[in-house]
Design goal:
Elements: E1 2-10, E2 13-19, E3 24-28, H1 35-45, E4 61-68, H2 74-78, E5 87-94, E6 100-103, E7 106-108, H3 110-120, E8 121-124, H4 136-146, H5 149-177, H6 179-196, H7 202-213, H8 216-232, H9 237-254, H10 259-285, H11 290-310, H12 314-332, H13 334-380, E9 387-399, E10 402-411, E11 419-420, H14 421-424, H15 427-448, H16 451-459, E12 467-471, H17 479-492, E13 497-501, H18 505-508, E14 513-521, E15 526-533, H19 535-547, H20 552-562
Parallel strand pairs: 3-13, 3-14, 8-12, 12-13
Antiparallel strand pairs: 1-2, 1-4, 4-5, 5-6, 6-7, 9-10, 10-11, 14-15
Length: about 575
């Protein structure tokens, strides 16, 4: 359960610490005092989206920290986080840059934080009942009540498979219709590429050879001149080097130090002779061959034309050819593929039809139980003559949710037939219906627990308890109805830790822990405080909620609500 909340530099809150008890915690205060800001802070510390404008003016960072008694939460083991005393969840929201989240000082992602947060706290905001105005939510609520969420999810998985198979079958049918033309076209492309007999790297080799052929005159002139200078002409390099070598040998006969120079010369001359031989080979091959140049030009033109059709580079053209051959094989065996896919599709459609029938029967049976359970809750919440129906109609086709079209019907007054909830219910009625659904959900959970589970629940009530937050879910009601709503919240607090923001004294009077939120206006700043109320202070707050001011009459009524003997 949520034991403590610490808020710093968040909207109008400077620094605030709040302690909570295990049962019914009620927050009261004037409108605008900051009650809903506290709920927003809890949502943020558990992974809600944050923005820089949530930071208190003049501050660089907002910080929210929540401490839970849940020391055995399975997520701690999964994240390898040690915890002997509980869970400390911290969220920092900077004015610039990315925010950070921590559990017991271990950094975690917001996605992980949100996942853990869902198992710790369930927030029912003052606008949550608007979800009842979305017809598609009614089927989800029915499945949740009937314990069919898993089966509905399995059906959706099969439905997705059916859609995928239908798409493949339709695509294949379209391909078969166009197959003849496509087959001929692919065969033409493959034959065209095969006829070219391309080789990887061929284009570069052709371009290199053409470069040589286009510069043959220059190459021949250079090679012949170089060969003459090194070897062939009178006074060539080799001739002069040989004369120099003879003189150096004479030097080495008299001076031992000249032998190193002799060795260099004896090594260099053979290398120059090798260079001369290579030059002669180059010189001899640089013969102009107009026919070869024409062949290379035609070959390069062919390669470029194929590249323009099938991709840049010979390798890309060859890959296109292989891909075309693979597609061609697929088209040739298209009928076989279609038969196989259609067989699989027929099997899946039979399976989803059977699943939909089974799920529909369970929903019909559960709808009767849900109607009875909801009516019981609504009667306790002040709808003595209300009627509630779960209308299930069959769809013409099977959707991702099956064959059922579900809608809640409601009538608040006797003599009026139930009509679609989204058309007839007021905001206050919707809020009580949402509370009835939550009460019904809790009763369903309790009814499914074994005696051992119940004992375990009692033992762990102060530690592993999940927290439910009701943010002004009592909007639009009062009087005796408010007493019924308070009673139901009190009952819920026997199974869960409950935090409730309310303006109703009838509900506040039932609190196990009454917290007053107050906004104090200073000369230059605003301060939000939260004060636990007991004794006379609590009587004063109930009196204020009753009449807007504290009078002898309102105080007397407050004491009556609180059961205080005068």
């Amino acid at each position: 359960m949520l034991r403590e909340l610490r808020i710093k530099n968040f909207t109008i809150i400077d620094d605030l610490s709040i302690n909570f008890d295990s049962c019914l915690n009620v927050l009261t205060g004037e409108t605008g005092a900051g009650k809903s800001i506290i709920v927003d802070a809890i949502g943020l510390v558990l992974g809600d989206k944050a923005s820089a404008d949530m930071i208190k003016s003049g501050s660089r960072e907002a910080g929210i920290e929540a401490y839970f008694d849940n020391s055995n939460h399975p997520a701690l083991k999964e994240l390898s986080i040690e915890s002997d005393e509980g869970i400390s969840v911290r969220r920092n929201i900077p004015s610039q840059g990315k925010g950070r989240a921590y559990i017991n000082d271990t950094a975690i992602s917001l996605q992980t934080l949100a996942g853990i947060g869902e198992s710790l706290i369930n927030i029912h905001g003052q606008h949550e009942h608007q979800g009842l105005l979305k017809k598609e939510s009614h089927l989800i609520l029915l499945d949740g009540f009937a314990g069919l969420t898993g089966e509905a999810a399995s059906l959706k998985d099969i439905y997705d498979e059916v859609l995928a198979l239908r798409n493949k079958v339709n695509q294949l049918k379209e391909r078969i219709r166009e197959r003849s033309q496509r087959i001929e076209f692919l065969r033409f492309q493959i034959n065209e590429i095969d006829a070219a007999n391309l080789k990887s790297g061929e284009k570069e080799a052709v371009e290199d050879e053409m470069k040589i052929l286009l510069n043959l005159n220059k190459l021949k002139e250079c090679s012949e001149t170089a060969y003459g200078l090194i070897y062939e002409s009178q006074g060539s390099c080799i001739e002069q080097m040989s004369q120099a070598l003879s003189k150096i040998r004479d030097m080495a006969g008299f001076d031992e130090n000249a032998k190193e120079l002799l060795n260099i010369m004896e090594t260099t001359i053979p290398q120059i002779e090798d260079a001369a031989l290579l030059l002669r080979k180059f010189k001899d091959k640089y013969d102009i061959d107009p026919q070869r140049l024409t062949e290379l030009d035609e070959r390069l033109d062919l390669i470029k034309r194929l590249e323009k059709k099938y991709g840049e580079g010979v390798d890309a053209v060859l890959k296109y050819r292989d891909d075309a051959e693979e597609e061609l094989k697929g088209l040739v065996t298209a009928e076989e593929q279609q038969e196989s896919l259609q067989s699989g599709l027929d099997a899946k459609e039979t399976e989803i039809k059977a699943m939909s029938d089974k799920l529909s029967n369970k929903r019909i049976a559960a709808a009767k139980k849900m109607e009875k359970a909801i009516l019981g809750e609504l009667h306790d919440l002040g709808f003595q003559k209300a009627d509630f129906k779960v209308d299930i109609k069959k769809r013409a086709d099977i959707s991702a949710h099956g064959m059922d079209d579900v809608e809640f019907l409601f009538s608040a007054n006797p003599g009026e037939p139930p009509r679609p909830l989204i058309k007839v219910a007021s905001g206050g009625e919707l809020s009580r219906i949402m509370l009835a659904l939550k009460c019904m959900e809790i009763q369903g959970v309790k009814s499914q627990e074994s005696e051992k589970d119940k004992c375990s629940k009692l033992i762990t009530h102060n530690s592993e308890l999940q927290t439910l937050i009701f943010d002004e879910v009592d909007a639009g009601i009062g009087g005796v109805t408010a007493q019924h709503v308070g009673k139901r919240l009190k009952e819920i607090a026997g199974t869960y830790q409950v935090l409730c923001i309310t303006h109703l004294p009838q509900i506040a009077a039932l609190a196990d822990n009454h917290l007053k939120v107050e906004k104090i206006m200073g000369k230059d700043a605003v301060k939000v405080t939260v004060e636990p109320l007991t004794g006379g202070k609590r009587q004063d707050e109930i009196a204020r909620m009753l009449s807007g001011k504290i009078t002898d009459v309102s105080l007397k009524h407050a004491r009556e609500l609180l059961g205080v003997k005068v």
